[in-house]
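Please check this protein record:
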Amino acid sequence: MMTTNTQKPALPLEITDAVIDHLHSDISALGACSVVCSDWLVRSRHHIFSTVQLWPWRVRRFFELASSAGCTFKNHVHHIELDDAKSKNGRSQPLQTTPAASPDDAPKNDSENNVIFIDAMSKSDLPCLAHVRSIQVRNVNWTSLTPHDQATLRSRLAKFTKLERLEFHDVVFHDLREVVRIVHLFPAIVHLTANLTFMKYLEHNIDCASRLKMPNQLRSLELGTDDGIPVVLTCVESGHSTPHVFGLKLHNIRPHHLHHIRRVLRHSGKNIQKLTLAFERAEFIRGSQDSLVNAIDLSRLSQLKVLAIAGLGLSKTSSPHTLESAIPHILEGIESSCLDTIELQFHIDADTHESLDLLDWPHLEKVLLALHFFGLGQVRVLLDKVRSNRDNELVDPTLVGDRIRACLPELNRRGVLYLQQVEAGGTDELIEFEGEEK
């Protein structure tokens, strides 16, 4: 039972808020903090309910709790995640509203059915969802819905009037038209993640996309599927759309995507401030280096501030792949006076440190030093965590880090070079020697 403390707190609220913020991922500790007093309750609820994972077996119980008179989190839900693939045993289970909750914690004796995405959205007008600014949708097949159901679903989604970010992952549509209709529902939207699959032929989708228009307020895009990259980029660079995209993140880039990337960089490049290009490296083992350099033409990106290139690798081969050989030439094309950060993410084969010698490090450093002279603030080299083939232990990042610093000595001497070890597809983790001069 929550107690009310009318005495002056022993510590300023700024300090207690900082302590609670430090516990943001410890759900048990946050639960204990929430029963101390009303001030602690508000701050704790902010972290516990800021993100809610509405898996099918949680939906019914969550909305029962949210509709109750004693609900204490009505103003704290800002991000919701829905995934139709997260069903459990064909039954709906009691809701766990914490990001860290495990499906294995759910009781197994509940006889209620799973609640899929379209039905969950029937409660989109609940007060607890009035402040939602971000929605993530996974594993939903829009083509299974009738036109009437699609219209109904759009009317329910329109209730999220404050939505700023919309993420589609592994979602199936007939073509891009329905996606554009949905995005236009949200007057405040600034970001779209569109990892999509389309049922119609690619040629039809590209032709359809060329006649569509994304909202002018859309500021950033993230794409990473064979359908999503060419189709959405076609929509962005067509004459019907105004190029207001400031951030562009592309994953799983393959050679047949290069034509579409080249066109969008030429059309929208003057506005792009942050660009991430993550290549499917196996697709660029051999090929024309010139075609790759011409496609990734960064000379028009006059406002570019951050450039990240991922999917690079160094392995035990007689020569570097086309992708790694092209990187210095791609970077030579940068003419932005606003450039602050370049990130290069590498995967290095375990037990193969000598593979570092396959890259033309002197050429790469020469290009980076020239960019540093014109204002580049930092060069971040990200290294994927790898395990030894012999004992499955993580390779010591300091061994590779020391080699890279030796390969880029002048950048290291100037304090421009930073190293990070990262989980592939995960959160960056600074390695202990970052920024330390050797």
About this structure: Confidence is low (pLDDT under 50) at residues 91-111, 426-438.
